[in-house]
Amino acid sequence: MFYDRFVMLCESRGVSPSRAAIDAGLSKSTVTKWKRSPDARPTGNVIEKLTRYFGVSVAELLGEEGPEPQKVSDSDLKFALFGGSGDITDEMYNEVLSFAAFVKEREAAKKRKE
After folding, report:
1. Among the four 24, 36, 64, 70, which has the fewest Cβ within 10 Å?
2. How many CB atoms are closer than 10 A to CB 113?
3. DSSP letter string over the chain?
4. What CATH number is associated with residue 28?
5. Is residue 69 part of a domain?
6. What's the whole-model pTM score?
7. What tens digit of pLDDT does each residue of 103-114 get?
8. Quick one: 51 and 20 in the same domain?
């Protein structure tokens, strides 16, 4: 049911379904339609507005399963981050991972404030 997915996305953003609809440029009655009709799903322009608002793909918005993400090994990640340099210490690698976690949390905090 799309409505359940929509509510879950709203909760992850810390907003009510009505507030999310208004902020995304939709009417509250659209949300009511999804809630009352289990088979109702957004289409076209509404999907575009919601993916932009939530910052998710169409597949994520609609709760469709995609291919399983590939696991990346630490050595592959080190190669990608440091250009194959062999002089990478665990301390350097952990610092990069910590910074990436910091940036991810900072961006999530910005979205929660919006």
Report:
1. 70
2. 7
3. -HHHHHHHHHHHHT--HHHHHHHHT--HHHHHHHHH-TT----HHHHHHHHHHHT--HHHHHT---PPPPP--HHHHHHHHHTT-S---HHHHHHHHHHHHHHHHHHHHHHHH-
4. 1.10.260.40
5. no
6. 0.56
7. 988 988 888 887
8. yes
